[in-house]
Specification:
The protein is an alpha/beta fold. It has one domain (about 5-250): 3-Layer(aba) Sandwich (UDP-N-acetylmuramoyl-L-alanine:D-glutamate ligase). The protein has helices at about 20-30, 55-70, 85-95, 120-130, 140-145, 155-165, 210-225, 230-245; strands at about 5-15, 35-45, 50-55, 75-80, 100-105, 135, 170-175, 185-190, 195-200. The strands form 2 sheets. The chain has a 6-stranded mixed β-sheet. Helix 1 crosses helix 7 (about 210-225) and helix 7 crosses helix 8.
């Protein structure tokens, strides 16, 4: 039996909690072989981002072609794309290689507040990458930014925004409620066939660095293993909840620490 392979196209997090490092840890924890295409290097830790070095778009292309020409990639996760030229390079690469599943996490701002996507690149993200995605995974603020609307409050408003995002050309949208309020964190999986609310208890912890990256990667891992979209999303949400709940066990850094990717193992 061949090991399922997933590819992450994202930025590097020098502190190891988010980005490429979180994605590869997630793939490994879920039994999937991980490959990577690095779009940017960040100097960051649990307290914030102090520098970003963007990888030239032609080298992003070289990484994409090197991976796809040799590895049988079943699913792709896209995170920080950094700049306009990189979006074009990724879109062209996806068109060339036609991976079966693409999970796009539209990363615009770091959890510490730093902007990770140039303002002029947001429009290109809408037109070039969202239509190529199988699923996009915006949080409430990212969904609002993609639509140039205020942040949705309440289930009806969230559902409306989800449907507006579907109209951009992707078959499924997962609007994450982790930044919402209340005892439960509710994510909404919006598809043409309807809307499913996925609730999990809200966990009181400051160690949530890399949560969004890791959730998208966990979904991509499920899709790489052949799971249906709803199953992959449900399994990923259960896994991420356990990883957040176990985050206190590892105690990394002085700010917003990482989740415990390997909570099942140690």
């Amino acid at each position: 039996m061949m090991t399922p392979i997933a590819l992450t196209i994202a930025g590097s997090d020098s502190s190891g909690g988010a980005g490429i490092q979180a994605d590869l840890k997630t793939f490994a924890a879920l039994g999937v072989y991980g490959a990577s295409v690095i779009t940017a290097l960040t100097a960051q830790n649990t307290s914030g981002v102090s520098g970003i070095h963007r990888v030239p778009a032609d080298f992003v292309t070289a990484q994409i072609d090197a991976v796809f020409s040799d590895l049988d990639v079943q699913a792709v996760k896209i995170g920080m794309v950094a700049q306009l030229a990189t979006i074009d390079a990724i879109a062209a690469g996806l068109a060339r290689w036609s991976p079966r599943h693409v999970v796009l996490d539209p990363v615009m701002v770091a959890s510490s507040g730093e902007r990770l996507l140039a303002a002029d690149a947001v429009g290109r993200l809408r037109t070039r990458l969202i239509p190529r995605a199988s699923l996009i995974t915006p949080n409430l603020a990212e969904a609002a930014a993609l639509l140039d609307q205020p942040v949705a409050v309440g289930e009806a408003a969230i559902e409306r925004q989800g449907e507006s995002l579907l109209a951009m050309g992707c078959p499924a949208v997962l609007i994450k409620g982790g930044h919402g309020q209340g005892a439960e964190s509710i994510d909404y999986l919006v598809r043409g066939s309807g809307i499913i609310a996925l609730a999990a208890p809200r966990i009181a912890t400051r160690n949530t660095h890399g949560t969004g990256c890791s959730l998208a990667s966990a979904i991509a891992a499920g899709l790489a293993k052949g799971e249906e979209m709803e199953t992959a999303v449900r399994n990923a949400k259960a896994w991420i909840s356990a990883a957040i709940a176990a985050a206190e066990r590892i105690g990394v850094g002085h700010g917003h620490g990482p989740i415990h990717h390997f909570h099942r193992f140690y």
